[in-house]
TrEMBL record:
This is Aconitate hydratase A. Residues 554-682 form the Aconitase A/isopropylmalate dehydratase small subunit swivel domain. It catalyses: citrate = D-threo-isocitrate. NCBIfam families: aconitase_mito, PRK07229.1. SUPFAM superfamilies: Aconitase iron-sulfur domain, LeuD/IlvD-like. Pathway: Carbohydrate metabolism; tricarboxylic acid cycle; isocitrate from oxaloacetate: step 2/2. InterPro entries: Acnase/IPM_dHydase_lsu_aba_1/3, Acoase/IPM_deHydtase_lsu_aba, Aconitase/3IPM_dehydase_swvl, Aconitase/IPM_isomerase, Aconitase_4Fe-4S_BS, Aconitase_4Fe-4S_dom, Aconitase_dom2, Aconitase_mito-like. It comes from Bacteroides finegoldii. Its EC number is 4.2.1.3.
Length: 747
């Protein structure tokens, strides 16, 4: 336990005073999200009734967390900020760079060797600037934050899109790009558009096979991957108290899958129990002094439609287990309809690998319920049809699961226990397969299932479910198996049914600590080394400022068709090793995006050679000729992760504009921070006017102003021209970033 409650001794009394001040000025009941947001205004004198979804507001978050793949770029930027120390408590977590292959021990040893230079850099920069450092194997960022740092009523940012996991302990925790994290670490204002608030009222109580994961899987189907954009999902109602704190964290974690800014639950007994179990009794005592302000005002619950922008009701007692996928986390299907869907769509029916754990579903409750199913294999004389992989979320949970016999239960059915790290969840899975061209299905208890995300194979159909359902399907080896009603045939030829999963919310004997994974900073004189010829790390040079001219005659680099997530823009997996080297990682730019003109990936027309080339190779050639280029895309461009490489790579390769039908929130901000133009069609049908050999101009930049549209001119190859209006969401400050070349340049 590394938590230091000193800062909270002052936080909670101040929080109470701030909320009272806000209520006195706004003169109306407040939602929980509003209380926490307003209590974190950068300047308390700025209290006014901000328009949700419209007004940009400056905040002062309490802390920052960074994972190793994004921390590299965040810290490279922080080093250029001229500060001696971080302004708020911050941590780095080594979780993304460990490849899952043979099992925890060997994989960590391999990771230490292959990533030595990066780990040393992260450790030394952390030590130098006062940042806590969690070593490889210590755990996944969100699980470690939940176990050690999250606190009710707090606000944090994290350079990872699943940072909202901490909402399970009542914290406003928001995923951001590295440049945003730098704002907070330097003590500057951190800007966010005041989010809308979606209220989700929970009633009833989960039972049987249903789990907290199913709440968010169902909600993803209701809201879709865009439905939470620029909104906080605030859970309320009597059902919230029936969910464990870790179950709440799972639900908040996957709010990222509907694009929500964050998700959160009100402070309650279940949170207090978890905080005490993880050694934070003092946090509970302090939080209880302001308990009434760690939930929405009573009037909000009485008339939710008056105070929330949208209200959704879910009755936990009626909730069925869900399976979502393939290829998108919002394709939600209740288990009772899933077999029909598999057969109708011709999904590969054989379930080839089951994967449980990750930051999403690694709680004691998750693992103990899954283990209760694993134990039934021997008890009922069954066999297990598919391999099982387990990624514990932290060393604390792994050590506890080992002490309490769960790891043994998994190993007895042949599971491979991987490192306490992301592994297969981020493409760091060295999967051995007989034929990568064969369509195959996997089920995971992770959160995301975009094409190629787990194993890099486009033929893998990934489905997301609870750990319990993942385990049942692994035992059956059949996607059409419904454990609520179907039976399995055991070695005696008998038909047997799996009993409902059971498990404990928290370990009866407390958590085991496992191996120490935390390194406290030393500060001061720690030397930071970046070799000039390093292939993993590269110091950053500032991007050039805008030259004051309109952008004229830009070649179309790619017109992307369909889904274009950050995985399509800047693939993870093997490319993770270049996350600290902008030039090298730029070679993967948009390689997963589908070219609308030929339906292929990473094959675009190069006007300089009049042949087809890779997206990055073509952009590089234009850049070498001093020619800026433009990318055109469809809906929710940049959906998925917070990785700012997806914005920095195009910037580095002289792409100046992304013109899309719509953007995902974090990515749109990342583009702005890096000095790019993120524009959207006023009329989405204009997307169809853009031809493969067009040159595009963006006019009106001299008068670039908030709320004022710009004009795009298409210069067709046949000499004709067309023009249309495009819109943007830049405010004055963001326009200053564009003019300066980036937000960092504008400091
Ligand atoms: Fe790691 Fe996956 Fe969680 Fe991201 S979602 S932090 S990759 S385990």
């Amino acid at each position: 336990m590394v938590y230091d409650a000193t800062m909270l001794e002052a936080f909670y009394p101040a929080y109470k005073g701030k909320v009272e001040h806000v209520r006195a000025i706004l003169k109306r009941p407040l939602t929980l999200a509003e209380k926490i947001l307003y209590a974190h205004l950068y300047d308390v004198a700025d209290v006014k009734d901000y328009q949700r979804g419209e007004d940009y507001v400056n905040f002062r978050p309490d802390r920052v967390a960074m994972q190793d793949a994004t921390a590299q770029m965040a810290l490279l930027q922080f080093m250029n900020a001229g500060k001696d120390q971080v302004a708020v408590p911050s941590t780095v977590h080594c979780d993304h760079l460990i490849q899952a292959y043979k099992g925890a021990k060997e994989d960590i040893a391999t990771a230490r060797l292959t990533n030595e230079e990066v780990y040393d850099f992260l450790r030394d920069v952390s030590s130098r600037y006062g940042i806590g450092f969690w070593k490889p194997g210590a755990g996944i960022i969100h699980q470690v934050v939940l176990e050690n740092y999250a606190f009710p009523g707090g606000m944090m940012v994290g350079t990872d899109s699943h940072t909202p996991n901490a909402g399970g302990l009542g914290m406003v925790a928001i995923g951001v790009g590295g440049a945003d994290a730098v704002d907070v670490m330097t003590g500057m204002e951190w800007e966010l558009k005041m989010p809308k608030i979606i209220g989700v009222r929970l009633t009833g109580k989960l039972n049987g096979w249903a789990s907290p994961k199913d709440v968010i899987l169902k909600l993803a189907g209701i809201l879709t991957v865009k439905g939470g954009t620029n909104a906080i999902i605030e859970y309320f109602g009597p059902g919230t108290e029936s969910l464990s704190a870790t179950g709440k964290a799972t639900i908040c974690n996957m709010g990222a899958e509907v694009g929500a800014t964050t998700s959160l639950f009100p402070f309650d007994e279940r949170m207090a129990t978890y905080l005490k179990a993880t050694g934070r009794e003092r946090v509970v005592e302090l939080a209880e002094t302001v308990g009434a302000d760690l939930r929405a005002d009573d009037e909000v619950a009485e008339e939710p439609t008056k105070y929330y922008d949208r209200v959704i009701e879910i009755d936990l007692s009626e909730l069925e287990p869900y399976i979502n996928g393939p290829f998108t986390p919002d394709a939600a299907t209740p288990i009772s309809k899933f077999a029909e869907k598999v057969l109708l769509n011709g999904y590969p029916r054989k379930m080839e690998v089951g994967l449980i754990g990750s930051c999403t579903n690694s709680s004691y409750q998750d693992l103990s319920r899954a283990a209760s199913l694993a134990k039934q294999v021997a008890e009922k004389n069954l066999s297990v049809a598919a391999p099982l992989i387990v990624n514990p979320g932290s060393e604390q949970i792994r050590a506890t699961a080992e002490r309490d016999g769960m790891i043994e239960a998994f190993e007895q059915i042949g599971a491979t226990i991987m490192a306490n790290a992301c592994g297969p969840c981020i493409g760091q899975w060295k999967r051995e397969t007989d034929d990568p061209t064969r369509k195959n299905s996997i089920v995971t208890s992770f959160n995301r299932n975009f094409a190629k995300r787990a194993d890099g194979n486009p033929n893998t159909y990934a489905f997301v479910a609870s750990p319990e359902l993942t385990m049942a399907l692994t035992i059956a080896g059949d996607l059409c198996f419904n454990p609520l009603k179907d039976r399995l045939v055991n070695h005696e030829g008998e038909k047997v049914k799996l009993s409902e999963p059971v498990g404990d919310e928290l370990p009866l004997n407390g958590f085991a600590q496992g191996n120490e994974g935390y390194v406290a900073p030393h500060g001061g004189e720690t030397e930071i080394r970046v070799k000039p010829d390093s292939q993993r790390l590269q110091l950053l040079a500032p991007f050039p400022a805008w030259d004051g001219q309109d952008l004229l005659n830009m070649p179309l680099l790619i017109k992307a068709q369909g889904k274009c997530t950050t995985d399509h823009i800047s693939m993870a997996g093997p490319w993770l090793r270049f996350r600290g080297h902008l030039e090298n990682i730029s070679d993967n730019m948009l390689m997963g995006a589908v070219n609308a003109f030929n339906g292929e990936t990473n094959k675009v027309w190069n006007r300089s050679t009049n042949t087809y080339g890779t997206v990055s190779g073509t952009a590089k050639m234009y850049k070498s000729e001093g020619v800026p280029s433009i990318v055109v895309a469809e809906e929710n461009y940049g959906e998925g992760s917070s990785r700012e490489h997806a914005a920095m790579e195009p910037r580095f390769l002289n792409v100046r504009v992304i013109l899309a039908k719509s953007f995902a929130r974090i990515h749109e901000t990342n583009l702005k921070k890096q000095g790019m133009l993120a524009l959207t069609f006023v009329d989405k049908a204009d997307y169809d006017k853009i031809r493969e050999h067009d040159l595009l101009s963006v006019l009106g930049l001299v008068d670039f102003a908030p709320g004022r549209n710009l004009t795009v001119v298409l210069h067709h190859e046949d000499g004709t021209k067309e023009s249309f209006e495009v819109q943007h969401t830049y405010n004055e400050q963001q326009i200053a970033w564009f003019r300066a070349g980036s937000a960092l340049n504008a400091r």
